[in-house]
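User: Predict structure, ligand adenosine monophosphate.
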Amino acid sequence: MHMKLLRAIIMGPPGSGKGTISTRIIKDFPMKHLSSGDVLRSQMLNKTPAGLAAKTYIDQGHLVPDKLILTLISNQLKKLKGKSWLLDGFPRTLPQSEALYKLEPVDLVVNLNVPFEIIIDRIKGRWTHAPSGRIYHTEFNPPKVPGKDDATGEPLIQREDDKEETVCKRLENYQKMTQPVLNFYREHHLLEEFTGKYSNEIWPKVHQFLSTKIEPLQYTEYS
Ligand code: AMP
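Assistant: Predicted complex:
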């Protein structure tokens, strides 16, 4: 049975392909994308009081305080009254999920369950040519000469963000923080898990599932 409105959340660890899947959802279903990161970046760009307050946290790599992000998101959700939406990047903490629960009904939570080993393998293979920003991958897009930029022959470096140790730490932090959020939605029977290694493997399952909840914009067949 299709719902008139679908209020959904998408969750997934960094590197899980959440951006790719969100983009495809928005393309195929009549839903508005609401990304907390985008909302914050736009506030910072416009130098609003909220944006200026958020900047100090974000620059230090911290989450912004629950109250701040909650105010921003609830303002955005008010504008989306009567529309279907897909929340991305929010809620990130248990207090945020509890507050959202009181504020707006949530119909379902899509969780992308990509094995951590796969994410680590994928990211740690990335090598960058720092001056140009060109990115290579030892497996998927290797340079012609190992360790050298194709155009200039200059050495490639591994960005701090792409080092195995950094990726592991990021994933651990994500897990620690979001486990209570996932449990919260599991207890409310709203959590729908999609397991797979690649976006192209996960996407048909997400599409199929969402099609049972909300009418797609047009019919697409996935084999
Ligand atoms: P993102 O683009 O989702 O990675 O968000 C960029 C930054 O904005 C994060 O690193 C956090 O500092 C902040 N942020 C985004 N969403 C939230 C949230 N739900 N709670 C707290 N901080 C957030």
